[in-house]
Amino acid sequence: MPLFILITVLSVAAVLVRLAYVRFKGPTSAGEKNPAPFSAAAYGKWLAGRIAPAFSKEALDKAQDIYRAWIKEHYPGPLKWIFVGFGASLIYLVASGFFFALFIGRGMFGLPLLGHVMLGGLFAASLALVLILRGRAYRPDQDEASVLESFACPVFKNLSGTRLRKFLFWTFAAFGLVQVATALGSMLPVFTFETQRVLVTIHRYSALALLLTAIVFLDLAVIPRRRP
Predict the structure, then answer these.
(1) Least CB-packed of 39, 97, 143, 153 within 10 Å?
(2) Backbone angles phi, psi at 48, to 5 degrees
(3) pLDDT 10s digits, 75-121
């Protein structure tokens, strides 16, 4: 458990810092990249100047506008409830799962565990519907037009943004299926106690990979970049 806590904290912090750094070095209001060499002081000042505004009413209104635009484009009409169920279940599963994994030594129990199991079923159903509805848009044989100039990992620097979004989408789907399978497996009486412990461990690390994938996908595909 201490190893999982350490890996979780370091990996999430590393991804968030890297994504913030990409935006720090990204296009300015004039559409030009920041030409200045990296400065820890300048980066820290830039980052600190965005923490308070992130919790302002203006930021909340902007987030709502982004959400409405995303829903209107990808889940029009009554289909929005599929996304609502998917998003709500994912948020609860991530929040409850990582809270108990990081701060409660005995693990999840009681009503939070019951809610985790119930919303896990909602997540499985809504994930299946999302794959049916949106899988076609992320099929790997479509044309790749846009080029990603900078990204969280330099390995993907020359990979098109469209192709990377597809990769993240299917990576998320794969880890989501692992989550569903390991959750079901850990509850079935057909496995030994040691096998169930292994399934729980796989479930935790798969959840971490799913969270990191979701963060990067959200930053790349949903949150708009600064425009000139």
Answers:
(1) 143
(2) -65, -35
(3) 998 999 999 999 999 999 999 999 999 998 888 889 999 999 999 99
Strand, helix or coil at 227?
A: coil
**26, 150 in Cβ contact below 8 A?**
yes
| Domains contained in the chain, number | 1
Q: What is the DSSP letter of 1?
A: -
* 193 contacts: CB under 8 Å, gap ≥ 6: none
Whether 31 is covered by a domain: the verdict is: yes
Nearest to 86 by CA among 115, 137, 129: 129
Tell me the CATH number at 211.
1.20.950
Q: How far apart are CA 17 and CA 15, in angstroms?
A: 6
3-state SS record for 149-211: CCCCCHHHCCCCHHHHHHHHHHHHHHHHHHHHHHHHHHHCCCCCHHHHHHHHHHHHHHHHHHH
Residue 127 tokens, joined: 């994930």
Would you say residue 164 lies in a domain? yes
Residues in the chain: 228
Give the CA angle between residues 85, 122, 213 to the nearest 5°: 75
Could you tell me if residue 157 is inside a domain?
yes
